[in-house]
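Researcher: Structure for this, please.
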Amino acid sequence: MIKWLCLAVCTAFLLSGCGRQGEDGQASQDSAKESDNLIVVGLSQVGSESDWRLANTRSYRETFTEENGYYLIFDDAQQKQENQVKAIRDFILQKVDYIVLDAIAETGWDAVLAEAKQAGIPVILSDRSVRVEDDSLYTSWIGSDFCRQGERAGIWLRDYLEEKGRAEEPINLVTLQGTLDSTAQLGRTEGFAKILEKQDNWTMLEQRTGEFVQAKAREVMEYFLETYPDIDVVICQNDNMAFGAIEAMKEQGKSYGKYGDIIVISFDAAEAALEAVRKGEINADFECCPDLGPLVDETIKKLEAGEEVEKIQYVEETYYD
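Model: Predicted structure, token format:
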């Protein structure tokens, strides 16, 4: 069943322009002090490695504007955790009101988040989560249920194979994983594994990271195709890696997608990927909503009003096939 209910909304969002806050990188301490009448938010973003990430950054910048009562200090970590740790310490020195962290990896945050807590600055986790010994080091986490995404992808594949009369056939799979130890990589891997272990005729040949990057994913997919002559399914843990995998399959003359031999499953459902679903290049794409800015804004407004907020806040999502 084709699911396009949210397509118009997603397309409009992904085509929308960037806000002006944070365009010049991290603001100075003096600039933050001059914004006493605004809520100062320090945002540490993973980077700009994918279409999803760019849309996610647009969401924050369009939300945390002066018109909405905010002053945004934006930091692009360029895929390096040490840059995020430095950014958080800079935010603490600048005495921001809130820190929003989209963590590159789940581990390694106890010390710096303890410093933020000691400074009395609430930390809101967005998109990716962290693993710390004391969960009071952050106020709330807002994002996708990545484990559920992976599980739904496995269920979809099981049903699709049954529909095509292939339920009893041996099925060989490979996975292009995202950045290792990131919440999305861990959750999607775990969720899909729950379904995989119940299918005796499915074999996961290998899983390798493509780091959520198209060029890297192409290299890994080239290796998969050269190493394993009989691949039935490729799981791509984001759309940009699906594009890289498709490039590799085209280069090697492999047939794929709705009308080919290799089933392509992806995650994120960015605009370009939905077009690939329409064309039949991607069989199924599981949505990961990038529009988290308004949900973080809602959480901050509740905290400003002295209200309690939920520790874990999941966004609702669908899939497209």
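Researcher: Any notable elements?
Model: The longest strand covers residues 202-209. The first helix runs from residue 7 to 15.
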